[in-house]
Amino acid sequence: MSEQGKGSASASTAAPAPGSDTYKGWLFKWTNYLKGYQRRWFVLSNGLLSYYRTQAEMAHTCRGTINLATAHIDTEDACNIVLSSGGRTYHLKASTEVERQRWVTALELAKAKAIRMMNDQSDDSGDEEPTSQSDRSELQGTLKILISKLDDLSTCNDLIAKHGAALQRSLSELEGLKVPLEGGEKIKAVNERATLFRITSNAMINACRDFLDLAETHSRRWQRALQYEREQRTHLEETIEQLAKQHNSLERAWREAPTLVSSPPSAPTNNQGSERVRKEEASDEDEDTEYFDAMEDSPAFITVTASESTQHRRSQSNLSGASGGQASDWNQDDSMSPSCNDVSGKELQPRRQRRTHIPDKPNYSLNLWSIMKNCIGKELSKIPMPVNFNEPLSMLQRLTEDLEYHELLDKAARCDSSLEQMCLVAAFSISSYSTTVHRTAKPFNPLLGETYELDRLEEFGYRSLCEQVSHHPPAAAHHVISQRGWTLWQEITIASKFRGKYLSIMPLGAIHLQFHSSGNHYVWRKVTSTVHNIIVGKLWIDQSGDIEILNHRTKETCQLKFSPYSYFSRDVPRKVTGVVADSGGQAHYILSGTWDDKIESAKIIQSSRGGSGSEGKQKTVYQTLSPKLLWKKYPLPENAENMYYFSALALTLNEPEDGVALTDSRMRPDQKLMEEGRWDEANSEKQRLEEKQRAVRRRREAEAADALDEGREYEGYQPLWFHQRRDSLTGETNFVYKGGYWETKERQDWSMCPDIY
C-alpha cells in the first residue's frame, strides 16, 4: 500500500459515535485526467459533506461542499464511492473496502437525517392537502400496495427464519454424530453459511421496513410537488391562450390599418414580418422595433431595428448623429451600394463539369487495441496513426476550402465604400468555418514540400497555391490571386492542446487580403477550434474566440465574437456577432448570425447610451435598418453523410487534373487509396511515406552536422515556391509567394520538385 493509502486508512478508523453527526477522515478524490486521484480531508457534518486539502484548511478554506439531502450515493467497486447532486459529482476512493463501507454507512445515515429535517421544516410551514380526492386516494392506494408487499416480505422472512432454524438444528445434530473429521468440517461450514443466510434475510426485511418509512415521510412532499407542477401547467396554459388572443388581435389590427400610416402602439410590425408583443404604454422608442441581446466581451450594445415608415419621420440631425451625416449614401432596397452589385469584367466562361460524388466511406470498426499494441516500445514520433481517424484530404486542401465563398470577395472588390467592403470581408472570414460543423475527421498531415493547386481561373477568375514549408513545427503557406481584383495570402501553423475531454486547435498566423483598385489591406487571425468528446461520446466541433479585422489603409475595424456553445445558454448555438467601426471608433454596421448557416448586416442610423447590463456595464443602444443577408451556406450534396460530409467544393479537390506538380496532394498514394475505400492498403502506404520522410530528415541532420564539423554553412531545406519575408504591417516574418509556379506549369518542367511520394 502507498504512503497515501496508509494515511487514508489510519486517519479515519473511528466509526461515528452514537448520536454524533460528524465524521472525518482522508479519502482520495478524482481531480482530472492529468493528476488523477488526490488525497483530501473530508468532513461530514449536519447533512453536508465538505472537503479540504489539509486538516489545517478547515479553519479558513473549504474546497467544496455537497448537500446529502438531494445527493445520490452509489458504489462502483470495492473501494469507490460516487456522490452526485445536481450538476456536481464527486468520485471518491477509500483505501480499503472496510473503510469504504464505514463512509457509506455514515453518508446514508446523514442523508436520511437531512431528509427528515428538511421535511420537518417544510411541514412546520404549513401542510397542504391534495387538491382532489383522486390524488389522496391514489397516494393511499400506493401506500397500501407497499404495505401489502412488506407483509409478504415479512411472511417470507418468518418462513426463512423457521426453515433456517430447522436447518441449523439438523446440522447441529449431524455435528454430534461420529463422522470423519473432513465431513465434520464441511457440516460446520454449512452451518456457518446458514447463519449468514438468516442474518442477511433479517437485514433485507429491515431495509424494506426502512423503505416504507421513507416512502411515508416523502408522501406529503410528493403531494406538494405535484400540486406545484399542476399550478404551473395551468398558469402556462392560461398564458399561451392569452398570447394567442393577442396575436389574433394584432393580425386583425395590422390588416385593417392603412398602409401609409404608422401602426398604433398595440400592433407593432417590421419589414421582416417578425412580431413581438410589447408594452402598450407609449414610450420614446419607435413603435416598430426589434431588440437583440448584447455582446458580452465586446463593448456591450443593443440593436433596435427601425421600420421604413419610421425612417421617413427621422430628422436629418438624428441620422447625421449616428452616421456622420452620410444618410443619403444608403440604399434601403439593398444591403450594399449599387457598385457592390454591378457585375464587371468579362462574361463568365462555361463551367467545366466537376464530379459530384466520391466512393462511400467504408464502415470499418476501429480496434483501439490494434493501435495500442503497435505503440509498445516505439518512439512517440514513430507511432503510425491509422487512416480511420482521417478524411481523404490533406491540410493544404482544407486551407483551400476557405475559398468556397470566394464570390463574397468578388463582390467586395466592386464596393466603393470601405465600410461595406469590411462587412463582406467579415462574412468571408466567418464562412470558412461553415464546412467544419460535421467534419470531425482529421485531414492528412502534409509531407514537407507537398503542394496543392486549385486553378479556377476560367471558371471563377482565381488561382490558389499551397505548400508545406515546414514540418517541425508544421506550417503551410497559401497564396491566391484573382483577376476580379483581390489577392489573399496566409501562413498557418497549427498548435493543439489535449485537455482531457476535448482537443483545442489554435491556428497561428495572420491572413492578409488586399484589393487591387482601392489598396485596402485587411489582416485578421483565426479563432480556436475545439473538438469535444475525444475519449467518450460522439465527436462534435465548436468555434470560439474573437476576431479583429483591421483595414491598415483606413484603420477601420470589425470586432467579431464567436460565442462558445453552452448547454445552459438561451442563445442560438454557434452564434456570431460583430460591429464594424470607422477609424474613430464610431460604429456603422452590426453583424449577426451563425458560423454554420448565415450572416446578416444592419446599418446603424442612431446610437445612444443605454442602461447598465447584468454585469454593471453600460450598454450602447444602436438603432438600425432592417438586416440584410450577406452570406448563406450552400446545402450539402446528396448523400454527404456517407462521403465524409464533404461540401460541393471538397468533393472536387482530389479530382485528377492534368499538368499539376509531382508534389501535388492529388498524387499522394495513401490519400487516394483511402478515398477509394482501400483502407488497409492506405495504412501501409501511409506508414511507408512517413518512414521515407523520416529518413530524409535524418539525412539532412547528418549533412548539417558534417557542415558544422567542417566549418561550412548549411542552408537547410528551402521551399520551392515561397520564401521568408518580413511583413511591414505586422512586423512578423512569414513565407510569401515568390512566383514561378504557374509559369513552370505552362512549361511542364517539374524537374526541380523533390521526390516525396
UniProtKB/TrEMBL annotation:
<keyword id="KW-0445">Lipid transport</keyword>
<dbReference type="GO" id="GO:0097038">
    <property type="term" value="C:perinuclear endoplasmic reticulum"/>
</dbReference>
<keyword id="KW-0813">Transport</keyword>
<feature type="coiled-coil region">
    <location>
        <begin position="679"/>
        <end position="706"/>
    </location>
</feature>
<feature type="coiled-coil region">
    <location>
        <begin position="226"/>
        <end position="253"/>
    </location>
</feature>
<dbReference type="InterPro" id="IPR001849">
    <property type="entry name" value="PH_domain"/>
</dbReference>
<comment type="similarity">
    <text>Belongs to the OSBP family.</text>
</comment>
<feature type="domain" description="PH">
    <location>
        <begin position="20"/>
        <end position="112"/>
    </location>
</feature>
<keyword id="KW-0472">Membrane</keyword>
<dbReference type="GO" id="GO:0005886">
    <property type="term" value="C:plasma membrane"/>
</dbReference>
<dbReference type="GO" id="GO:0005829">
    <property type="term" value="C:cytosol"/>
</dbReference>
<keyword id="KW-0597">Phosphoprotein</keyword>
<keyword id="KW-0446">Lipid-binding</keyword>
<feature type="region of interest" description="Disordered">
    <location>
        <begin position="119"/>
        <end position="138"/>
    </location>
</feature>
<feature type="compositionally biased region" description="Polar residues">
    <location>
        <begin position="316"/>
        <end position="342"/>
    </location>
</feature>
<dbReference type="InterPro" id="IPR000648">
    <property type="entry name" value="Oxysterol-bd"/>
</dbReference>
<feature type="compositionally biased region" description="Polar residues">
    <location>
        <begin position="260"/>
        <end position="274"/>
    </location>
</feature>
<dbReference type="GO" id="GO:0006869">
    <property type="term" value="P:lipid transport"/>
</dbReference>
<dbReference type="Pfam" id="PF00169">
    <property type="entry name" value="PH"/>
</dbReference>
<protein>
    <recommendedName>
        <fullName>Oxysterol-binding protein</fullName>
    </recommendedName>
</protein>
<dbReference type="InterPro" id="IPR037239">
    <property type="entry name" value="OSBP_sf"/>
</dbReference>
<dbReference type="Pfam" id="PF01237">
    <property type="entry name" value="Oxysterol_BP"/>
</dbReference>
<dbReference type="InterPro" id="IPR011993">
    <property type="entry name" value="PH-like_dom_sf"/>
</dbReference>
<feature type="region of interest" description="Disordered">
    <location>
        <begin position="255"/>
        <end position="359"/>
    </location>
</feature>
<dbReference type="InterPro" id="IPR018494">
    <property type="entry name" value="Oxysterol-bd_CS"/>
</dbReference>
<feature type="compositionally biased region" description="Acidic residues">
    <location>
        <begin position="282"/>
        <end position="296"/>
    </location>
</feature>
<dbReference type="GO" id="GO:0015485">
    <property type="term" value="F:cholesterol binding"/>
</dbReference>
<keyword id="KW-0175">Coiled coil</keyword>
<feature type="compositionally biased region" description="Acidic residues">
    <location>
        <begin position="121"/>
        <end position="130"/>
    </location>
</feature>
